[in-house]
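Data's thin. Show one?
=====
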Amino acid sequence: MEIEEDNDRYRAPALDKGLDILELLAHTDGGLTQAEISKQLGKSPNEFYRMLDRLVRRGYVARQDDRFILTLKMFGLAHFHAPVRRLVSFATPVMREFANRAQQSCHLAVHDRGEVVVIAQQDSPTYWGISIRVGARISLFNTGSGHILLAFRDAAQREMMCSEQERLDSEIRRPADLEEKLELIRARGFETMDSLQTAGVRNISAPVLSLDGHSLAALTCPYISPINADAPSLSDMEDLIREAAREISVMVGGRG
């Protein structure tokens, strides 16, 4: 009894309320209305309005018509770090081999809550090259990595990813021709586009795929045209980046 009283001294009612909602939705199929949530938790509907709004805005809960359902965000947070470490450990030797053959740098990126996050970087073995800092967060809409991560997801996942990106920055809007671009990427199996951030760089990106064909990551080479005539060409680079991405897919996703 003394322990319970001591614990009550440090209660955070707003946090408890949010956790109560998450735990309730986790054990409910098909979601619940605000009134149903209030009834099951023994509180008035007004007490949960702001809490539900914040949970929706933060992506832990989704609203479908008048019902609230739990998203997979907590699952993703719980499983994000260990798989990322494994992905990097598998990808690193392949990226090193690619850099040596291509004489260019490369980086590996994943989707995380509406943004593209660089999780691994391999420098060019030559004295020049473009590198992106590990941990850098970039846009889904105007980068090769972002296009790859979107293209190889189903329609519902793409919508969720795009909506998250737009919520992060009210000034960011998905391009009108985005779906058209993504369809072309799926058809050819990779993305190639001039960098919208750095002049003179051609980004070439290929997907690291799971067994079901969904993108786990994007492998990107920020290609700089070399003066050395013996260096791999842009066309060579497209083959090399796709080969490297396929090799990582086999090791990580089990794709043959």
About this structure: The chain has a mean pLDDT of 87. The chain is about 50% helix and 20% strand. The radius of gyration is 22 Å.
